[in-house]
Each structure stands twice: as structure tokens, then as C-alpha cells.
Amino acid sequence: MDEFLDQLTKSIPVLRRYAYALVKDSSKADDLVQDCLERSLTKRHQWKGKGNLKPWLYRILSNIHLNHYRQSKTNPIHSPAELTEKTPMGMETDTTSHQLDHLYLRDLDKAITKLPDEQKQVLLLVALEGLSYSEVASITQVPLGTVMSRLSRARETLRKSTTTPPPTKEPTINTDVRSSLTPTIRRVK
Amino acid sequence: MSKNRFKGSELLHAYVDRQLSPEEKSRVEQWLETHPEDARLVAEWQKQNLGLNDLFAAKINEPIPEHIAPSSLHHQTPPENRASLSLLSQIAASFLILSIGIAGGWFGRDHLNTITADSTITVATQQNFTQPAMEAHWVYTPEVRHPVEVEKNEQDHLAKWLSYRLEAPLTIPNLTAQGFDLMGGRLLPSGTGPAAQFMYESKEGSRITLYLSKSLNDEQTETAFQFSQTGSTRAFYWYNGALGYAVIGDIERNELLKIVNNVYQQL
Q: Any CB–CB contact under 8 A between A25 and chain B?
């Protein structure tokens, strides 16, 4: 079997997850994946023919994502998605999560969207895709120290956005319920 | 790789992302015991990792849309490759049938009609061991007389024997601190060769199992904890090196996660 195509095919589900987590819009995420696959096929001679193809694919996808974002900075690609896809993935599949309640997941989901793209990529590659720091450094083409500081800033932002109650009151959530729930996840200073 | 690759708070991140050597890991653990502020940070970041996986987990099992599915790939490749590609997709299709056979009908049940052929291969490789792990849990935990094959009084022998059969050094984690005592373990068949199950019991009689099987992938990968649930049975599973691990129990998710973290640190 053609090792390249085999690995490419097997990578599609994780690439789709990564792309979706980056842009939060299913059709845009799939466009991103498709661009990535097309580009990888035209550049397949660059792949040395040995080793794991995935980091290389993550790198192509990350580059397209950053370039696309820069091109359309006036109209960031995630803003319409916020309106159209309010329910994050996974909520329906595990409604019995005790530790990670829906409020936490919703806040986390929102917070990720607001992260700067460079930080978001590093965080997702590490925490979601399970890559090593050095792999992430080579994918994002920055020094290891930069990976660590981006990761650290991303986590700090997420922590702040998920542990303090949002400034605007949510109309759908009963305030009493919310105030009784928040202390369990709030970090005591 | 040098021993002290990380410094300061980087060590805490690397601990959360499980990128430390066993020595570094135990150093961080000792540190966390006496530094509650850092321990809280670590717990928060672990929760973030889990949350991220929860949020986007469903994307992995989603059918791949037609326009990016592999069958459409060869239309975009240079003409000289086309002939060989269509042959390759035939080979891929026959490989798929094999994988389904290995993974059993479970994944096929829901997805066969909708999912594209090649994504099933990935799903099968990544997750196939959670189902047999759960089945083994359901079969053996209700056993009154023979829950385990080798009992805990032969723990050393058990570890040696199963390490030999799985061709990887196994440590049997001690979960006494979490209120679960080792009962023993057994050898099991699996789609990837011999698998192992260790069983633990709490004073209240609740039983959890740790299931280990060889990874289908040749690559030595390490993945984040993934969560899976069937009925009231919950499982966390992950890959580390050549083995896939699953911790299974009919207990609350956060309680199970504590055990999982503990198991991971001891492996």
C-alpha cells in the first residue's frame, strides 16, 4: 500500500477536528482540510517517505490557517461561526460529565475562540492533538521557548475566562443556579 | 534527550501534558505535594485538556464529507499518478474489510452505512480497544468465585508473566490511596494479540479494571486521556508507547479521573 496515501487518509479525522477547533465553523474547517490535503498532494515529493506524516500535515494546515486569517483580518473567520454554531461539539455525546459541567465547557468553548491564533494553534496541538512540545515547535516553526510561552499564556487566558463569572448576565441561566455552581470551579486566590 | 529540558513552570506544563521522564515526573509530584498553589494550577490545566477533548471529540467519529473524502483525492493529483491511485484505493478497500473484522461489529453498527471507508480504518485503529476492554470489564467484574486468573498474592509472578506475554514491561499500579485494593489479573485475547486485565476492589465492593493491549499502530505514540461511556460504565483510555491503556469503572467520572491520573503516574 502507498504509505503516503495511507497515512494521509488516516489523518483526515484528526485534521478535521483540529481545523474545526481552530475556526469553529464546520464548512470552513472542511475547506481548510481540503486545502491542506490538496497542498500535501502537490508537495508530496517533500515528504521523505519515512516517518509520521501527521506533523507535516498539521504544519501545512496551520500555515494555511494563519495565512487565511491574515488575509481576512477585517473579517475574522470565527466571528460568523459564533452565531451559527452555538452548541460546541461533544456536549450531546457526554451529558453526564460531572466534573466538567456545561457551564464550564461553554465558557471554555468561548474562551478558545478569543485566543490569538498563534496561541490557539499551540494549545490545540498540545492539549487536543497530543503532540510533543518539540513537534509543535517544528510544526509552528518557532523555538521551543516560544511554544512554552504561548502555551502558558493560552492556559492563563482560559483559566481566567472559565473561573470568573462572565461580565454580562446570561438570560437563559437562572442566576441562583449559576451562583450556587460557580464556587466549585472558582480558583481561590 | 537531556534530563533537565524544562525549567520552572515549564515543568508543570510538561507534567500536565505528560511529556516528562519518570524521574522528572516524580520530582514534580513531590513539589506539588508541598505547593498547593501549583497543584491547583496543574489541576486546572488538566481540566482544560479534558474539556478540549470533550468539546471536539465528536468530530473524530463524524462521517467525512464527500468533497474531502479520499475517493475525491485522486482527481486533484498529477495525471501520472492516477492509474496507480485507483489500484491503491482498491487495496485500501480490502484493508478496510480486514479492519472491520478486527474491530468487531461495534463501530460498524452505527457508522457502516454513512461513514466513508477510510475513516473507519482510523477509528478502528485509534479506539478499537475500548470496546473489548469494557466487555472484559462486564464479563469478569461480576464474578464471585473467579474474578481473576492470578491472585494478588502472586503479584510479582503476575507482572512478569503478563509483561512477557505483552512484550512490554508492566507495572501493576497500587491504588490503595484511592481506596481500591488489587485483586489480581488475567491474560485476555484481543485483536492485537495478548491483552491484560488487572482488577481492583473497594471496601464497598465496587470493582474497577485496568486493561492493557498492544497498540495497532507501529509508531510509538502518546495520546491524551480520552473518555468513553456506555450505560453507567465509564472509561478513560490513552496510548503510551506500544500499549493502549483503559481504566474502567462504574463510578463517577471525576473519581475515575483521579484513579486514572494515579495509574498513569505509576506506569
A: no
Among residues B61, B80, B96, the one where a domain terminates is B61
pLDDT tens-digit map of B36-45? 999 999 999 9
Side-chain half-sphere exposure of A49, counting CA atoms within 13 A: 3
Alpha-carbon span B267 to B252, nearest angstrom: 23
Q: Are B108 and B56 in contact (CB under 8 A)?
A: no
Task: Return the CATH number at B260.
Answer: 3.30.200.100
Q: CA dist B185 to B170, B188, B211, Å?
A: 12, 10, 10
**Longest Cα–Cα distance in chain B:** 67
CB-CB under 8 Å, A41 with B64: no
Is the pTM above the cut of 0.95? Answer: no
Those residues with Cβ within 8 angstroms of residue B93's Cβ, 6 or more apart along the chain or in another chain: B117
Q: Which DSSP category does B114 fall into?
A: T
Q: How far is CA A2 from the centre of its chain?
A: 30
Q: Which domain holds residue B161?
A: 129-266
Q: Say if residues B164 and B148 touch (Cβ distance below 8 Å).
A: no
Q: Across the interface, which of B44, B92, B229 has its CB nearest the CB of A1?
A: B92
Nearest CA in chain A to B115: A13
CA distance A140 to B252: 38
- If asked whether residues B141 and B161 sit together in one domain, one would say yes
Cβ distance of B51 and A105 shorter than 8 Å:
yes
Asked if A123 contacts A113 with a C-beta cutoff of 8 angstroms, the reply is: no
B259, B153: one domain: yes
**B195 pairs with which residues across the strands?**
B188, B213
Count of structural domains, chain B: 3
Distances (CA, A) of A150 to A23, A116, A136, B14, B165: 18, 9, 11, 14, 43
From A164, A17, A129, A144, select the one nearest B44 (Cα to Cα): A164
Interface predicted TM-score (ipTM) of this complex, two decimals: 0.75
pLDDT, position B73 = 58
Residues B41 and B85 in one domain: no
Identify all chain B residues contacting A88, using CB atoms and an 8 Å cutoff.
Answer: 55-56
